[in-house]
Amino acid sequence: MSAKPIPAASARQGGAPVGTPTKLTQGSQTRGGVGESTLRPDGTLKVTGEFAYSSDMWHEDMLWGQILRSPVAHAEIVSIDTSEALAQAGVYAVLTYDDLPTDVRNYGLEIQDTPVLAHGKVRHHGEPVAIVAADHPETARRAAARIKVEYRELPVVTDEASATAPDAVLVHENRDDHHVGHVPHPNIVHRQPIVRGDVAAARERADFVVEGEYTFGMQDQAFLGPESGLAVPAEDGGVDLYVATQWLHSDLRQIAPVLGLPEDKVRMTLSGVGGAFGGREDLSMQIHACLLALRTGKPVKIVYNRFESFFGHVHRHPAKLHYEHGATKDGRLTHMKCRIVLDGGAYASASPAVVGNAASLSVGPYVLDDVDIEALALYSNNPPCGAMRGFGAVQACFAYEAQMDKLADKVGMDRVEFRRLNAMSQGTVMPTGQPVDSPAPVAELLRRVKAMPLPPERQWESSEGADVRQLPGGLSNTTHGESVVRGVGYAVGIKNVGFSEGFDDYSTARVRMEVAGGEPVVTVHTAMAEVGQGGVTVHAQIARTELGVAQVTIQPADTRVGSAGSTSASRQTYVTGGAVKNACELVREKVLEIGRRKFGTYHPAWATAELLLEGGKVVTDGGEVLAGLVDVLDGESVEVEEEWRHRPTEPFDLRTGQGFGHVQYSFAAHRAVVEVDTELGLVKVIELACAQDVGKALNPLSVVGQIQGGTIQGLGIAVMEEIIVDPVTAKVRNPSFTDYLIPTILDTPTIPVDVLELADDHAPYGLRGIGEAPTLSSTPAVLAAIRNATGLRLDRTPVRPEHLTGTA
Amino acid sequence: MRVNFTVNGRRQEADDVWEGESLLYVLRERLGLPGSKNACEQGECGSCTVRLDGVPVCSCLVAAGQVEGREVVTVEGLADYAKQRAAQGGCAPGACGGPSPDGARAEDGTSVRDAQDWSARGTDSQTGEGTELSPIQQAFIDAGAVQCGFCTPGLLVAADEMLERNPTPTDADIREALSGNLCRCTGYEKIMDAVRLAAARQGEVV
Amino acid sequence: MDFLRPASWEEVLAAKAEHPTAVPIAGGTDVMVEINFDHRRPEYLLDLNRVGELGEWEVGEESVRLGASVPYTAVMENLRGELPGLALASHTVASPQIRNRGGVGGNLGTASPAGDAHPALLAAGAEVEVESVRGSRLIPIDDFYTGVKRNALAADELIRAVHVRKADGPQQYSKVGTRNAMVIAVCAFGLALHPDTRTVRTGIGSAAPTPVRARTAEEFLNAALDEGGFWDNGRIITPSVAKQFAELCAAACNPIDDVRGTASYRRHAVGVMARRTLTWTWESYRGTDGRAHRKGSVA
């Protein structure tokens, strides 16, 4: 070990933070409204390397933060000694629970059960115990390694049996949250039953009954941009935080009380976000960076490495799902019973909402009037689980689609026709009693995906022999065609859009129109987290369509404007898009008001006609130009900031599960074509065709991109992705990109996409949230295709080579 | 320790480098060139791909001290690099026996400070419309291959190098060449489109 | 930590003699990950990149002398005729970026059972040229791997080159991973036919504490091929022979359960790969399968 001191990291010079987000202006496109495939306004910055992600932030004199995490899953902390770490040259602060500045020492999305730093106890492997600030990341690492923590290990809760046994260790001893009153055991975060119809009577009508027990593995979001950010202490005692997140105001609400600061002294700005997929809905390094910055009076940057990232955010809930379905011999579903047990891990995070989704969407997109449903999430000492693309609905879809295939086979019907026969449609009543009151083209999506031409067989054959790159095993050269069997599988799913169960799910937009450089320009300011989905592109399109201007500037997202809600639940285009549309409409009204005041006497149409803003002008609906916007505004500017809400929802009844819980549903269907090396258990997905109803494609290029990306995350959980937690120690065994595998470009198939646009009259432009639905049906389609190729049952996902070869 | 090397045609000197630092860290934190990304730091994701003496490598796996005297091209220099290649009739700078393009500039004595200012601020109010891009960069934008964009710099460097070697790749060739670059957003389809587009446009020019 | 930058092989040896704890770094594939993730803090890093000769190779009469740092890409592109098994193995290494930097010396130095090159070297037959200021010696590949991530190097020795026997017959290499690219071996298998000596050699990766040969399987097959006159008559290998060979290869494994796969799967997969690679090489030897060569890759 070198004793030589490590020089401070900052060799650069400069003043303000480097890498603060930029305004994004697109001015050269004269069209570029809703429905066009306009290009991303941040595209050029992203391809030149100039787009500033949160890990790119830099400030003169900044320090590096480092987190010391628990090496064990469940233990009492007997003692912590930070003296040796503090004594290191270059170390500016070492903080533990005892250093927290206020009595608010926990945070959480819904239940504030997560300690900022461990207090007397750690509940999962990797829980933060202490934080360090030093002038070089290596110095910070060395210091963290010298913090002495004595742990006394406790028994671990790892599954339903150990969580609810009579003598079970309680993960949280003194719960006082709003769910504790209705759960059957304190190690259950939340439980949601749904009962509708008469299952016993309906079961009597069934000619066939199938049961299945399914297991869904723990998936990681594996966004590529690690958790990171920069906290800069301000002269007013506050702090400026640049960070990658999904919801600035939710972060703010959780951060400020811990720091003991009013919310207006914690100024948050969204840095470039390198993907999210739910994994940034909870806090990671935000509070830690602020604490260190406020303690040291210096800017503090924290960047997780990939190892730490696996501990630094919640994962997709692993689940055990038990299903029973019945059908008549003519193929009609009679009833469904299911029990879904989700493992929420050590802290609640989004578990209650995941339970609500799993329960309310557990029937899938099918007509089923007689159901008995139970979904619950456990507290355990496994890694905390929370939001990930499609949450709750993803796990259920894997199971009910496997059931559909089994039932279709029993009835003796084609698997797609069986689904189409039972498919829901507009007007179908959900098990929650909520009627589906917009198009639900489930049967049509299945028809379309089945109608697509199948990819040619044996594409790997060429005149020069087998191209292994197109075979299972790929470059590893495991087969030249031996034992390769093709399989085809279908699946369809249903996902809710937006925040459900009575949540006040609003967004805020500030829109300003003024004249600059002799032309009308519009500025859109929201707090929407652009995480890659393309919201910034769509906001500019909406502004162009509504306000008829070419040049639109998107302001960086920050907390100087009202909340935009979360970039999750497929909701941003709906809700923040809706807010932008609404604000634009209000701006338009004001502009027209000015126009009427100035020019109303010159032309009767100002008073009588329907007026629009197009091409920088005020025009009548008949196309007659009344005035240029430049002349109307004449130096004035018009600005509106307004909240916008979708129609309200209501909570599910805690006993019956009844209630108008969801605002919108989203549907996608997949057909998977796989080739399996049945002897080695290796799978190559050849094609994943998708048909999805998007209501209205505001940006078709982006829509297809979202569908393809979601599809491949579904492929990942089907054949390779799983966080493996040791069942005895509850420790994570594969926290790296070496052993947590996500699909490479050689694992991904072609993904033809058929986009259907059936307007939802309740939504802006008739649009439907799109981001999550493709992640649902992709996984069961791949599993069905593998079953088709191998003849195996395969009741768990991901399926690994040992499951296909009887060597598990 | 001190490390001297050439980045995007400019001489750079990094001082006080800790011996355990990677080339990636030096580029990002010492030279103000954060375009190369830090997604895994274990050679699994390719987001830190740069060209080291013309060869695509993961800069997270190159020790800073190993680049002494060598030539690095990052995504920030990709447009210039492609332009010079085009001017030299398709050869990479320095790869066809001609004078190394950095020679003249190095004599100009570009200061570290200037190079940093030039590099990665991106803080003007524009999106960079009008910025001169390499064909592969333009194709990524046009094809919708950029979502969160974190994988993009590494993919661009890798794809550009493949097209330099293999101007008419098959789909399987593209997939093989880019198999070291993970993307989590796109499902890779639009990345395939972008590379095909760049290859087609390249073909039209020739 | 100190960074040593010797400019010649002699300086490398001198530095290693002076600082026996110095960790050599060439492609950085293993060392940099350990440093980036704080698994290792060597006192000295010994950079080998400046020693040009380590990146060179010479094709001799009997063997190829492959510099320790010759990148896998170069092996794939330039030595597929002489070293077909190693070229195939090289093609399975990680990603193009890694193959551009990493070389066989790194695999041998780390001596992980999962190193991709090992089964190919074992099957082809090789000697590792190691050197210190005390002198140079050749270690037969069969004696090189001494334990999990341990090899036969003395503390002051470094790998200069590996002498791999030039192929005198078809060679194959297969590796199982749970992804179609960029994957660490769950297990791997190399097989080389040596018509000159009428022998078959094998190599197994990631299925025992060290890379191993399936010696019993080799002996069985050598005898079976000999008895049946297969080398001369070029007949198709009888399925029962192939099956027993595969079973003996599986039996040569001593694998563990880990996050990458179960022991039972590894044994099974090695058997399958043994049978397939035997079939491919034998078909190639018989000359009846002109299409055995993979498009766009090495074979």
Can I get a quick summary?
The complex is a heterotrimer of chains A (808), B (206) and C (299). Helix content of chain A is 25%, strand content 25%. By secondary structure, chain A is an alpha+beta fold.
Q: What is the level-2 CATH architecture name of the domain at 443-496 and 663-804 in chain A?
A: 2-Layer Sandwich
Provide mean pLDDT of chain A, rounded: 96
- Number of distinct helices of chain B: 8
Q: Which strand order spans the largest sheet of chain B, edge to edge or round the barrel?
A: 2-1-5-3-4
Strand content of chain B: 5-15%
Q: How much helix, percentage-wise, in residues of chain A? A: 10-25%
Using the coordinates above, name the CATH class of the domain at 443-496 and 663-804 in chain A: Alpha Beta
InterPro entries (chain A): Ald_Oxase/Xan_DH_a/b, Ald_Oxase/Xan_DH_a/b_sf, Ald_Oxase/xanthine_DH-like, AldOxase/xan_DH_MoCoBD1, AldOxase/xan_DH_MoCoBD2, AldOxase/xan_DH_Mopterin-bd_sf
Protein name (chain A): Oxidoreductase
GO molecular function (chain A): iron ion binding; oxidoreductase activity
Pfam family, one (chain A): MoCoBD_1
Task: Write structural notes for this entry.
Chain A is α+β, with helices and mostly antiparallel strands. Chain A is built from 19 helices and 34 strands. Chain A has a seven-stranded mixed beta sheet, sandwiched between helices. In chain A, strands 10-19-18-17-11-34 form a six-stranded mixed beta sheet. Chain A has a five-stranded mixed beta sheet with strand order 1-26-25-24-30. In chain A, strand 5 and strand 6 form a beta hairpin. Chain B folds into two domains: 117 residues, Beta-grasp domain (Ubiquitin-like (UB roll), Roll), CATH 3.10.20; 71 residues, Orthogonal Bundle (DNA polymerase, domain 1). In chain B, strand 1 and strand 2 form a beta hairpin. In chain C, 35% of the residues lie in helices and 22% in strands. In chain C, the strands form four sheets. In chain C, strands 4-5-10-6-7 form a five-stranded antiparallel beta sheet. In chain C, strands 1-3-2 form a three-stranded parallel beta sheet, covered by helices on one side. Chain C is globular, with a radius of gyration of 19 Å. In chain C, 59% of the residues are buried. Chains in contact: A-B, A-C, B-C. At the A-B interface, strand 1, helix 1 and helix 17 of A face helix 1, helix 5, helix 6, helix 7 and helix 8 of B.
